Amino acid sequence: MAKLLFLAVVFPIVIPVCIMFIKAVPKARLYFFVAMLYMISMNIANVTVFSFFPEPDWTGTARGYTITVVDILALIVVGSMLFMEDYRFSFFPRGWWLYGLYFMFGLFSGINAELPLHWSFEVERMIFMYIFFLASYNFITYHRDLRPVIYTISVSLFIMFVVGVYQKYLGGKFQISSTMPHQNSMGLFCIMYSSILLGALFNEPLRPRDYAIMFPGLIGGAALLVFSLSRGGMVCFVMAIMIVLVLSLIYGGMSRRKVALVVVMSLAVILPAIKAAPQLIRRFENAPEASKITRINLALCATRIAHDHFLGIGLNNFALYSGWGSPYAPEQFANFRATDSTRNTGGVVETIYLLVAAECGWGGLAALLGWFFYYFRMALLNVLYLKYRRCFGISIGIFAGMTSNFIHSTLEWSLKQHSNFYQLMFVFALTATIYVTNVTRRSAEKREYEAKLRQRLEAAKPWHKRPSAGRR
Q1: How many other C-beta atoms can be found within 10 angstroms of the C-beta atom of residue 281?
Q2: Rounded to the nearest 10 degrees, how much is the dihedral formed by the CA atoms of 90, 95, 100, 103?
Q3: Distances, alpha carbon 382 to alpha carbons 52, 91, 240, 448, in Å
Q4: Rounded-to-integer distance, Cα 135 and Cα 82, Å
Q5: Each residue of 21-39: pLDDT tens digit?
Q6: Is the model's pLDDT at 378 over the cut of 90?
Q7: Alpha-carbon torsion 233, 234, 240, 243, what sign?
Q8: Could you tell me how many helices (H) and strands (E) the chain has, helices first?
Q9: What whole-number distance in Å separates Cα of residue 206 and Cα of residue 209?
Q10: Cβ of 75: how many Cβ atoms within 10 Å?
Q11: pTM score, two decimals?
Q12: Which DSSP string do the residues of 201-226 spell out, in sequence order?
């Protein structure tokens, strides 16, 4: 009853009232957007979800129809921008059709879904993710100023760091997850944001206040990765740092600022790293063999499913095929004896790529890879085109973060979780905005300038040297 009351109040009353308020006070849109961006760093599972038809015991990627605070804020931002006089709202930003193709494979996978309700949980989430993408893209494109975005990223990481310190030293947790549902999803989240901050600190023109806000966020993100004790996360974070350093030095050269930042960052991270060194060494030396075997077994299970089902088995249905008695996972239960309490559902394969292949078919995986590669290529083009220009450092950070996240996703399915999915959509929107605003428009302006210059040069020639109208 309370959830129905929530729907009856939020959608017909709260959202329209907030949209009208923004129409009356346009500056308020910034605060709604900042709140939306900040809330993706919160633990969606425990804090900001209103779940309908929940399935709390389900081991899949979605456990109910969820409407988050982020979704509500995204609807408010989108609604406030739909009929602006000085801005043309874009429903189809660059790359939208690739996400649409991936979404279509997800829809078609429902044909084979043995649990259509669970399949629809994931479909509903993908729809809200696109609304969030539209809110992010159109807001950034219209407002242009990226400082609120960078500040929000910095504050998000710092608050996550404060929560992580509390969990580590007052809560007694061995592997902290901060505001995320799991330490691996936290690692993926921190890598992306920390890479963007590092690229901006190295290459963007900044004011003293910018350093004061951004640097604590960067240090907090790096410390969280150390505290997480995630082997894959730390390796991928080092990879991201090296990409940012190498590209910054190749295109920007050495400077006092970069040397000072490297020294200060090293000193700030070295103390928690030294303190956590024994645990880190044990994590690498004593990696549990059972975890490795489970990953391999579930990967084999996903591959068999993808081969047998052209359209996949349905979004959010993998756990039904990886449990006890499934013909697709014989290795996982080779020496296992079932009891009356044994569940017939299993776990989720620990890589987003094989998970999508199993649930949406090999075509769905191809669509996912095409979607990822499109924005990855766009991020690289931003780096190559914008060297020595505004947004160059942010573009380097995005490229490094994407590289690490896509590699890390071979070991985790975290990009299917709410916070990481939101962050991915936001980074894609930011990449497309930078490309359209700084690359496409500047290229068009350059072509227009060159055309006008040619016209002036032709007009300045003597009449007998000008090309005749009939000559080709």
Answers
A1: 10
A2: -120
A3: 41, 22, 17, 21
A4: 10
A5: 999 999 999 999 999 999 9
A6: yes
A7: negative
A8: 16, 2
A9: 8
A10: 23
A11: 0.89
A12: HHHS---HHHHHHHHHHHHHHHHHHH
